[in-house]
Design goal:
single chain, 308 residues, alpha/beta, Spore Coat Polysaccharide Biosynthesis Protein SpsA, Chain A, 2 domains, 7-stranded mixed beta sheet, 7 strands, 53% helix
């Protein structure tokens, strides 16, 4: 099957994007003339769905609020050889190269990298910039990858990635979950620099810097625990072990010098902390074995999931 005959689906999750959705659909139609453009209306109250329908998009309704819930429905409902995901706020211009890389089999996920181009000059929200840097540093460090733009909504996926990705996030933490999933399962990710333009006047971001930022950090912690339990529980085991040793050494020195243990409660607490450290270590060890077994199962499922 040639690339011309392969099916491309453009996915636009939307919530109150009446000001921009028509232009976004037009831009993606021009960039991908043979693609099906899907707009999933997430309980909009400003007529986003009707505007999108008149602009020629395939419009569906998703009643469970949150971007993660919308992406889950999209991935479940739509079959294609290549999926292009973008936001409906006109901040992500289409990049045909992203689809080409997926269709050539060069990657399972292509990430539109805003941070290497115009993001920091166009985006006027200071804490969004700081949050992007923080999330990027955490994920690259914890999961041993090098991804520049973690939070971008501009992505392209293969059929295999979409149909094997378990969507657990409900909101804006979905992009973080996608990146960590790919990193943890050794799925090839490629970044393509893309332009970024800030929202037009009158269009408001649905992302809350503080509450959604906290959810993203919570997602990173949860996935670090689930994908790397030995490192997660081992870190806490080490902390408890160090505290236990610090409490035990003065008691031991006093006993060695006098033969007495006047601070018996301290010795008991040190012993309990040592037990907790051992339990945490053993928990991490057992869970690490389970995670490796789950990766083997995923790998078997992954290689059997092919576009028919």
């Amino acid at each position: 099957m040639t690339n011309e005959n392969k099916k491309i689906a453009v996915l636009l999750p939307c919530y109150n994007e009446a000001l921009t959705v028509e232009k976004v659909i037009k831009d993606y139609k021009e960039a991908f003339p043979t693609a099906d453009i899907y707009v999933y209306d997430n309980n909009s109250t400003d007529g986003t769905g009707e505007i999108a329908r008149k602009a020629g998009a395939i419009v569906k309704k998703e009643y469970s609020q949150g971007k993660g819930n919308v992406i889950r429905a999209m991935f479940k409902d739509i079959d294609a050889d290549c999926y292009i995901m973008a936001d409906g706020d006109d901040t992500n211009p289409p990049v045909p190269e992203m689809a080409d890389m997926i269709l050539r089999g060069e990657a399972e996920m292509v990430i539109g990298d805003r941070l290497s181009s115009t993001y920091f000059t166009e985006n006027k929200r200071l804490f969004h910039n700081t949050g992007n840097r923080m999330v990027r540093g955490l994920i690259n460090t914890l999961f041993d990858v090098h991804v520049t733009d973690i939070m971008t909504g501009s992505r392209a996926f293969s059929y295999t990635f979409v149909k094997t990705f378990p969507v657990l996030s409900k909101g804006f933490e979905i992009e973080t979950e996608m990146t960590i999933h790919a990193a943890a399962h050794n799925l090839r990710m490629v970044e393509v620099p893309t332009n970024y333009r800030d929202r037009p006047e009158g269009s408001e971001s649905k992302l809350n810097t503080y509450s959604d930022g906290a959810k993203v950090l919570g997602t990173i912690a949860r996935l670090f625990k689930e994908y790397k339990p030995m490192a997660f529980f081992g870190l806490f085991a080490l902390i408890f072990l160090i505290i236990s040793i610090c409490m035990f050494i003065p008691v031991f020195n006093e006993y060695f010098a006098t033969g007495l243990v006047p601070r018996f409660p301290t010795l008991i607490v040190a012993g309990f902390l040592l037990i907790i450290a051992l339990l945490l270590f053993m928990s991490g060890l057992i869970l690490e074995v389970i995670v490796k077994k789950n990766r083997q199962i995923f790998e078997m499922f992954y290689i059997r999931t092919k576009r028919k």
